[in-house]
Amino acid sequence: MKLKVLGCSGGIGGLQSRTTSFLIDEDILVDCGTGVGDLPLEALVRIDHVFLTHAHLDHIAALPLMIDSVGEQRQKPVLVHASPETIRILHSHIFNWLVWPDFSTIPDHHQPFMRFQPIQVGERVELDGRGVTALPARHTVPAVAYRLDSGSGQLVFSGDTAYCPELIEAINACPQLRHLILETAFAEEQHGLAVASRHLCPSMARALLDEIRGAPELHISHLKPGVGARIIAQLEAAGRGLPVRALARGDVLEF
């Protein structure tokens, strides 16, 4: 499997600051932030599955626009996989005919442009020999992480999360883990804000990483614009564990 980073920033402002979205091969998105808007229309049409970690705007911003752009050009619905709570939030607050049309009913209920597929923590979705499994996460809204399995390697994306023992346990249960994408949104001096918003700062991220067995490549995402270099430096100074690198738009990870 191949993961291309369309966006991994904690905000906007400049060509490199696109919010979270990853293109898996050519037909799967994990999250649907502003980075999706850089794809050409023909690439958007090829996307059959979207896996959402949670309903915050930086992770779903492009979803309503993408469905609107590709709906008439596809022969089958785009399947949007998310927790039941996330689906409820999207139905209530986005696809509600007030903010945006409900594309799960357009042009009709039998053949809509978009179909929601609930996924529970621990559930695995099989897609042509590839596996996508929802893992636990802790955030201010219901959220999940994801494990991607190619059959010969695994990648875990934390989504947005605070320190989460259940996620650590799930990561340590991955026998073929090659890549770990971990959010660290705030610098150390914003520790209180990280706690309140259920994100990670460097000391909290290192506490999580100190419990990770194995040696996956570690990629840090969701860096707030303007403080990314400081967050990475603080992570490097916080411990002697896994070496870290900032994930960047355009990166390609294979596993």
What does it look like?
- By secondary structure, the protein is an alpha/beta fold.
- The chain has one domain (2-254): 4-Layer Sandwich (Metallo-beta-lactamase, Chain A), CATH 3.60.15.10.
- Helix content is 24%, strand content 25%.
- It is built from 8 helices and 14 strands.
- The strands form 2 sheets. It has a 7-stranded mixed β-sheet.
- Helix 7 (202-209) crosses helix 8 (228-237).
- The longest helix is centred in the middle third of the chain and has 10 residues, at 84-93.
Average pLDDT, rounded to a whole number, is: 96
The dominant shape is globular
CATH top level is Alpha Beta
**Annotated CATH topology:** Metallo-beta-lactamase, Chain A
| Series of H and E elements | EEEHEHHEHEEEEEHEHHEHEE
Helices and strands: which structural class?
A: alpha/beta
Helix content: 10-25%
The CATH H-level homologous superfamily: Ribonuclease Z/Hydroxyacylglutathione hydrolase-like
**CATH second-level architecture:** 4-Layer Sandwich
Distance between the termini: 6 Å
Flag low-confidence runs: none
The number of helical runs is 8
Would you kindly provide a brief summary of this structure?
This protein has 255 residues and is an alpha/beta fold. The protein has helices spanning 41-45, 57-60, 63-70, 84-93, 165-172, 191-197, 202-209, 228-237, and strands at residues 2-7, 21-24, 28-30, 49-51, 78-82, 114-118, 124-127, 130-136, 144-149, 154-157, 177-183, 217-221, 244-246, 252-254.
